Amino acid sequence: MKPTDISDPEYFHKVVDCQYACPAHTPVPEYIRLISAGKYDEAYMVNWESNVFPGILGRTCDRPCEPACRRGRVEEEPVAICRLKRVAADNKGDVKPYMVSGPFESNCKKIALIGGGPASLTVARDLAPLGYEIHLYDEWHKGGGMMRTQIPAFRLPEEVLDEEVNYVVDLGIHTHFNTYVSSMKEVLDQDYDAVFVGTGAPKGRDLNLKGRAEADQHVHIGIEWLESVAFGHRTSVGNKVIILGGGNTAMDCCRTSRRIGGEKVTVVVRSPFKDMKASPWEIEDAIREDIPILNNMPPKEFVVENGKLKGVLFGKVRAEYDENGRRKLIPTGEPDEFIEADDVIIAIGQDNAFPWIERDLGIEFGKWDIPVLNKTTFQSTLPHVFFGGDAAFGPENIITAVAHGHQAAISIDLFCNDKDLNDRPAPMANLMSQKMGIHEWMYDSYVVIDERYQVPHEDKALSLTDRKIEVELGFDKGLGFKEAQRCFNCDVQTVFTDKKCIECDACVDVCPTDCITFTVNGEELELRSRLSAPATNLTQDLYVSEKLPTGRVMVKDEDVCLHCGLCAERCPTAAWDMQKYLYQVTKATEVCVQC
Amino acid sequence: MSFAKPKFTHPQSPRNKVGYIKSDYEGVISTLCAGCGHDSISGAIVQASFEMDIEPHRLAKLSGIGCSSKTPTYFLSNSHGFNSVHGRMPSIATGANLANKNLIYLGVSGDGDSASIGIGQFVHVIRRNLNMTYIVMNNGCYGLTKGQDSATADVGSINKTGKANEFGPIDLAGLALELGASFVARSFSGDKTQLVPLIKAAMSHPGFAFIDVISPCVTFNNNKGSTKSYDFVRDHMTVTSKVDFVPLKEEIEVQYEAGKKMDVKLHDGSTLRLAKLAPDWNPFDRNSATNKLQKARSNGDVLTGLFYIDPSSGDLHKKLNTVDVALNTLNADQLCPGQSALDKINASFRG
């Protein structure tokens, strides 16, 4: 193998698994260390700078970081990264002084943002300090988009949402709330320098089965139903409720039903339990609230008697998978099952919808009515129109929308300055030695086996009485500290300097997880077969040095390195050093004042 | 600051035939200087014990005093151990072995402990062919008292104060050969591919197995001009043979060039496979080993590898004709069979 080029910013970035997996590449270990140190303001600002909505995401994020966490590879469960983010948000003081604040000197450019969700708000935050005049349009009376309409208040309290939306709006954004944009042409006619579309995926899928039309009064589309509950237009539901679907929206619908009158609430999913799309923790929460989840039962018919919904008839299937893992649902031949219901909520997915964009404006649409976009710049075929969030490539999640927003903001800024949109700014990367003494580091290097801490919950009986009572109470400072201590500090890198190595083997002997081998070089797969410990995780890189005096090379498998620093402590010549790697995605502008 | 090794291990760590992973053979974290050769030897002992499928409670580790003799704390935490008086490890080992011959005895000593204060004990344990593995971690200096030249320092070797040693060295491997040791080898802490099979062979050997391991003192004797530094040993190392230890019942897969390979059957059925690199050397001939060693010394080379082996050697218990079971398992009736047995013995003298 070729010697590893550690000057490539992506090499060490990849070692920080959580940060690498995060769409916005939030420097996770950096803020977790700050939480350990009780520096909640700073921890919050590291997040705010990167993901704009720490308090919201600390409750609602899809957490792509957690399955990636290295602790999950050597222990049962990963660090509770998401809940730690909330610890920073819950315990911070006044952070406004750390944020940029207006008024900003105008650059005489006007930008329109259609939709007030996370993608648009991110664009607004990144562009406002540069002097852009930002006009934000949303059909509701407040910003937040799907975070407000689709996430129930028992998961995300309104105060938290308002606070973080307002940090952005307060940057001098011209808001046009209660304004439904019904024509893109009208927007374009207003001579904006650029237009950003962040309208999400607002169309819930329907299920056209027998009886659907007759039962219409008691059959609801999941996201529309959640929205009407969120805005108080709907305050009750029938005693018996069936939720169709196995995603996070289904979980939100069933739990909301339990709070507004539903006593016998059942989730029915056509696929097996393990194939359900909902996050495991949301499924857990639903089960905790006494909601049965029935699997392998596709709905066949809305049963209506005398014009009134009686319930739903379900078939029974089992799943079979072909060699490509493709699933087929095969009827088992068992008799159909009828489940009574007063109301049925359909939560089987959502789609993009752009009925308001005229198709003769030069904005091309492709398959499934999704706009044709440049995947890096988010630019549409009409050069000054950009898309982001769920509106861009279909439904994803909040953190992906934020990541889109950052990139779209860069594109818009480049576009407005007549620069090449493909000339993307390089990430900021910095390596800094953590050495303080012979055996002392600037980070807490010692790692212990420690199971993930459970987050406390509100009393169930109480929380079911009011949909606005938050269920998860979050870690308090003490638990937050303990959980933060589970972080391995994977951003503190093991940096090897081959010129200093005397090949004494001290690092090989001391490494608890046998990551290091000195051997002759070879092709990657062959080399992996003869390392100190099995190196079977091909998604994790091998760190290979230049040739050493004995003709061998140092090979380190990054897979289960604990970043405990023992290799560096036992190295007599400091050929190993522990160096903190800070990687930050470059934004359109600096938004933090003091960090 | 690390005061202990994390308890995490590699999730896919292989298990040996007795169900342990390699870290089960480790000890607490070393307090020796970072980069000390002794730690590599500890690592080799851990590796060898793991690969030999040794049940930790079947092994006793013994040592004297010194940096080397601290190392039993850093390996085989689940085995028996005895840290004895300076230079007196051989006596303790002899006593322990006589009482219970069923354990594997691993003695660890240093050049001070064996070549100076304990040389009297060292020579006699060789003479008795006690069934044990005796490893000397040889760094040519007294590291624990800040690096004075030891009795194994070569003439002219420069210590950290810049002064050349004027006294002739004791070659412990040469001494062992001279005194009739039945297994003699030398290795280098920085070469585990050689050291691990040698330790495994030594543990299988039914008699006194001596390994002199050059182990650089990274703090006091790793300077330019020292003949026990990492660089000097790497530059001047020559080997008698490449050693491969093949345990019982495992297929021998490696093919060597005809005439160069040599299989040595050990008493427990395992095989020591040697790929000879020195043509004028025969591992069964004490004289050829001595000659080879002398020649290397006059060339200024550090000869390593297996020097001599007598696979059929009879250990101390055989010479003393002790009973088959370990002496510590004999009960009072067996040890004191009573008046009639005594009468019989007395009668046999009157014959």
Explain what the structure shows.
The complex is a heterodimer of chains A (595) and B (351). Chain A is α/β, with parallel strands linked by helices and 595 residues long. Chain A has 22 helices and 25 strands. In chain A, the strands form 8 sheets. In chain A, strands 3-2-1-4-17 form a 5-stranded parallel beta sheet, covered by helices on one side. In chain A, a hairpin with a 5-residue loop joins strand 12 and strand 13 (327-331). The relative contact order of chain A is 0.16. With 351 residues, chain B is of the alpha/beta class. Chain B has one domain (22-320): 3-Layer(aba) Sandwich (Rossmann fold). Chain B is 30% helix and 19% strand. Chain B has helices at 37-51, 67-70, 89-99, 111-115, 119-127, 172-178, 192-204, 230-236, 286-298, 316-320, 332-335, 339-350; strands at residues 59-63, 80-83, 104-110, 132-138, 141-142, 148-149, 183-188, 208-214, 237-239, 241-246, 261-265, 271-276, 302-309. Chain B has an 8-stranded mixed beta sheet with strand order 2-1-3-4-8-7-13-9, sandwiched between helices. A 3-stranded antiparallel beta sheet of chain B has the order 10-12-11. In chain B, helix 3 (89-99) packs parallel to helix 5 (119-127). Classes of the chains: A alpha/beta (595), B alpha/beta (351). Chain A binds chain B through residues 73-75, 437, 439-441, 445-449, 502-506, 508-510, 512-515, 533-534, 536, 549-550, 560, 562, 564-566, 569-573, and chain B through 1-14, 22-23, 29-30, 33-37, 39-40, 42-43, 46, 189-190, 192, 216, 218, 222, 230-231, 234.
